[in-house]
Amino acid sequence: MALQSGRRLLGLKFVRRIIAQENEIAMFSTTGPTNAKSCKVLVVGGGTGGISTAARFVKKVGKGNVIIIEPTDTHYYQAMWTLVGGGAKKFTDTSKPMKSVIPSGCNWIQDKAVKFDPENNTVTTEGGETVNYEYLIIGMGLQLNFENVKGLVDALKTDPNVVSNYSPNTVNKTFPALQNLKNGEAIFTFPSTPIKCAGAPQKIMYLADDYLRKNGRRDNVHINFNTALGVIFGVPKYAERLRELVSKRNITVNYTHNLTAIDADKKEAVFEILGNDKKETKSFKYDFIHVTPPMSAPDVLRNSNRLVDSTGFLDVNKETLQHVKYKNIFGIGDCTNIPTSKTAAAIAAQNGVLYKNLSLVMEGGNVSSKYDGYTSCPLVTSYERCILAEFGFDGKVMETFPVDQGKERRSMLLLKKHVMPTIYWEAMLRGYWNGPGVFRKLMHFGKS
Ligand SMILES: Cc1cc2nc3c(=O)[nH]c(=O)nc-3n(C[C@H](O)[C@H](O)[C@H](O)COP(=O)(O)OP(=O)(O)OC[C@H]3O[C@@H](n4cnc5c(N)ncnc54)[C@H](O)[C@@H]3O)c2cc1C
Fold it and tell me: Is the CB of residue 332 less than 8 Å from the CB of residue 321?
């Protein structure tokens, strides 16, 4: 009798262990059949914003309590692609396997988020998994809409002189095209949508200018900056310096010119002239064209009406980063409607604010930390020099160093080329970098 009940108890324990193991697998496996998973913090997007915030929260809420949904298997340090396009860095130095940057203790679902249900705190993936969350952080970046320029997708495939630093699939075309450019028309474009790193369309142009000068070909190539904007840069201080620069370097700037089509057979690029009721267009012959494609928030987010504003970007409070409607949802980085220049540098500063505010919400309090719009754009002006633009909301200049950063400086280029990558991989992605705010205060004796 005692032996029998002992056996039953052992059997029961065994069955319980199997069920427990199956539950564990159901909650945390990254593959397997359709099932529901739960977590305290769900991060959608494993880019700059997603990984750096996940790294902080897994330390707070513990192993197994953070899930990251990210479809790709490679993480890129995109900020380095300008130097890759200019032939000054290797593309292979800009990437790492995604699994190596997923913070330890986080669970990674390698899939796309295809449906947000903020009323029921769930996100569904393309593979059919539904993830329940207590708190959601959205860091999905920007979608590159190459197809919105007629003929561009094909031209990028077939014409070696049509290039773009903006995608991992095309950035390696830029330098060979530059090396082959002997004479004619070079065009650099800027679209009519928000983009990542608003300085990048110009940086590659200044590198091209420098490259052609160093190789004795500059007099044979006419350089055009065709921008959909009405200004060369959004912050007056840096805009003034850049206007001086283009004039000194003999670069033609065509404002309000928005690229709409490329005809690779005719080697022609068509631009609509904005702000003109007549719907005027103008064609330019090209021998080299660097295209910055139109961009938007990813379709799945754009189509989630309850989460986005009228422009399709995640609708968050620009200072607290909390969603305007759902208090358990926060946003970070390029996919949000925060009115500042979309950069990794901005994300560094947003990281600290998001961490403090979401932690307060988790503890039952209210958000209190405020983001000041800090962002930075190292405007590479040659292979040796850079203007380090740093600013916040409404174009307020927020320079870290006690020197005029509007001047082209060798030190700033060294910072961009050699120091920033280490900060990115070793500190930021591990959740230890809030941007240079502390150093700025120190260097300005607490006044800035
Ligand atoms: C050429 C170039 C030059 C730049 N120069 C600089 C610079 O000098 N300084 C600087 O600070 N910044 C620079 N940037 C900008 C910087 O790289 C971005 O601002 C930053 O990476 C944005 O981070 P994010 O997390 O918002 O988006 P990303 O890093 O782009 O990550 C978004 C992630 O979301 C994932 N995702 C998308 N859709 C889904 C989905 N449906 N489900 C799940 N996941 C999804 C993507 O796969 C991606 O991994 C540059 C960028 C480029 C391209």
Answer: yes
Query: How many whole angstroms from 142 Cα to the centroid of ligand 1?
Result: 7
Please give the single-letter amino acid code of residue 347. Answer: I
Nearest 10 degrees: CA dihedral of 67, 38, 331, 69? 40
Q: How many CA atoms does the CB half-sphere of 317 hold within 13 Å? A: 21
For 196-224, write each residue's pLDDT tens digit: 999 999 999 999 999 999 999 999 999 99
Q: Is 386 a catalytic residue?
A: no
**Which of 113-127, 147-161, 434-448 has the least mean pLDDT?**
434-448
pLDDT in tens, 99-150: 999 999 999 999 999 999 999 999 999 999 999 999 999 999 999 999 999 9
Q: What gap in Å lies between CA 247 and CA 316, rounded to an integer?
A: 40
Kindly compute the dihedral angle of the four CA atoms of residues 200, 204, 210, 212, in this order, to the nearest 10 degrees.
-160
Which residues on neighbouring strands pair with residue 122, listed in sequence order?
A: 117, 132
Least confident range from 118-132, 171-185, 375-389, 428-442: namely 428-442
Domains along the chain with CATH numbers: 2-143+297-362 (3.50.50.60), 145-296 (3.50.50.60)
Report yes or no: 261 and 235 within 8 Å, Cβ to Cβ: no
Q: Does the C-beta of 45 come closer than 6 Å to ligand 1?
A: yes
Q: Pocket of ligand 1, candidates 77, 78, 81: which has the most ligand atoms within 8 Å of its Cβ, to mutate?
A: 78
Mean pLDDT for 46-68 is: 98
SS3 state at 448: coil
- Active-site position among 106, 197, 335, 386: 197
Backbone phi and psi for residue 125, each to the nearest 5 degrees, phi listed first: -100, 165
d(CA 264, CA 289): 11
- Residue 399, both tokens: 């320079």
Burial class (CB in 10 A: 0-12, 13-18, 19+), 287: middle
